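Following up on my earlier thread - several people asked me to post the actual chain instead of describing it. Fair enough. Here it is, all 321 residues.
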Amino acid sequence: MSRSVKAAAVQIAPDLTSREKTMARVLDAIDEAAGNGADLIVFPETFVPFYPYFSFVLPPCQQGKPHLHLYEQAVTVPSDDTRRVAERCAHHGVVVVLGVNERDHGSLYNAQLIFDANGTLLLKRRKITPTYHERMVWGQGDGAGLKVVETRVGRVGALACWEHYNPLARYALMTQHEEIHVAQFPGSLVGPVFGEQIEVSMRHHALESGCFVVNATGWLTDEQIDSVTPDPVLQKALRDGCMTCIITPEGRHVVPPLTEGEGILYGDLDLGLVTKRKRMMDSVGHYARPELLSLNHNTDLTPARHTTGTGAQFQPIPLED
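Reply from S.P.:
Thanks for posting it. Predicted structure:
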C-alpha cells in the first residue's frame, strides 16, 4: 500500500550574528512549511547558529574571533532551543530534521537532530569526520549516530555533506532500510561545481538505497558574504554551491531543484516507489551477497572516556613515575 508524505526542504540564510535570530528563522520556516501541508521539514547543515563559512576562507591565525563567536552562539542538547523546536513539531504534527553546531563543554560538533511529530527528539548524531577545513572547528562523531529512526513519516536516516562520499556510512543506513534519507549541506560554498557534485551524490544514493532523498542547502546574501571576508577573490568561494532537492528512489527530481536564493522546496513522496525500486534491485536484500561482502558497524562506539573506574576502586593515572 502506498503512503504519501509531503516533504519541505528549506533553503534560507541563517543570521551570522545571533543564535536567537537564526532560531527565529527556523521557527518561522516550520510554521510556513507546516501551513503549506508539509509532514517533513529539513534544514541545512549546522544551520543553527550558522555554518562556519569563515573556516573555509580565513587562515587559522585569523579564525580566533569568529570561532569563539561560534562557541558562544552554539547549541547545547537538550536546551531551550531544542525545546522550542520540539514544541513546534508537536503543535503542527510535523517531523523536523535540524542541523546545529552542538557545544559539549569545550568542543563543538556538527550535529543532526531528528524530531518526531510528537516533539520527541529521536536522534542526535554527530558528523563522523569533519571535512578538510572543518577539522579546525568540530570534533569527530561516533558510530552510534549511524542510525535509522522510525518516525511518523517513515524510516528516516541522515548524513551531513561529504559523509555521502563515505560508502560504508551510507551502507550502514541502507542496511537499516531507510525509506527517506535526509541530507544537509552548507550551500553558498566552493562554486557551481559543488552543486553539481551534490546532485550526483543525492541521485546516486537514492538509486542505490532505493529510498527518497530530501536535501537542504543553505544560502548567504551578498551582505553576509561581505561580513565573512571583504576580499573579492575569496568571496568567490562563498557563492553558488546550492542544490536543495527532493529525489525519488528512481533517481529523479520530484520537483526542479532550488539552486539560488531563498525558498522552501515542496515535494510529495509516494513511498510505494520504494518497493517498486527494490523489486528490481535491493542492495541490502536479494541483490546483496553478504557471504562475499559485508560491513562491520560498531554501534557501541561512543566518545572515549577520559577516566575509568568506579567508587573507591578508581585510581587516577599517574602523571609521572
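Confidence is low (pLDDT under 50) at residues 316-321. That should answer part of your original question.
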